Amino acid sequence: MRVHIVESYEELSTKAASIVSSQVILKPNSVLGLATGSTPEGMYRNLVQLYKRDLIDFSEVISFNLDEYIGLDANHQQSYTSYMFNNLFNHVNFKEEHINIPIEAEDKLQEFCLKYDKKIERAGGIDLQVLGIGTNGHIGFNEPDNKLKTGTHIVDLAEETIEANSRFFNSKEEVPKQAVSMGMSSIMGSKKILLLASGENKAEAIKNTINGKITTEVPSSLLQLHPDVTIVVDKAAAKLI
Ligand code: GLP
Per the UniProt record, which residue ranges are transmembrane (predicted)? Predict the structure, then answer.
């Protein structure tokens, strides 16, 4: 694992965008695994700026998003679909057919999950997977458990995650209780992984990711087994390492 400790959220965002843009410049038809949450917002802002300055071209890039809530319309302000269009896709030249987000009518979800994994496989797997991290060490929506799922699957969100994500909704009751998430095998099968964390509330999770015991109870600790992980953290998130 390569760990970069940076001074601020701004520096984290610039560094993350430069890692993603290097990937795309070196391989214009890269397959990117994309994450949502507040942490990568600054990275997306920087990528949009690089695009506007003609320094990056997304026309051949294929993207697969990590996760999406179940039960929220794609147009809902807090859906990860809206997030991705508002933060990136509406501002750069991604081709619509290259964008993949795990959302489907609820009655077809099981079937959809299998198709999502097949589609990632057919695209040649993920070249660079961007990850945020939950305060409990979840990645995507792979929540701490005594076993983890390999493929894309339906998840019951942990109480801690519902609590943490309630800041985006009017009340905790409005937070969806389920989501679809890529499983550990698509994440761990990515050629490169870029994990971002900012703020003191992520310090414990980052400590457990880097120095903790490898356990499904901290899904991010499994990243210790991956050969090419870059972690970019600001000082606050690096407080316990
Ligand atoms: C969410 C997402 C994760 C994200 C995490 C942290 O629940 N499913 O993909 O990494 O929480 O989010 P934030 O960056 O807002 O702290």
Answer: none
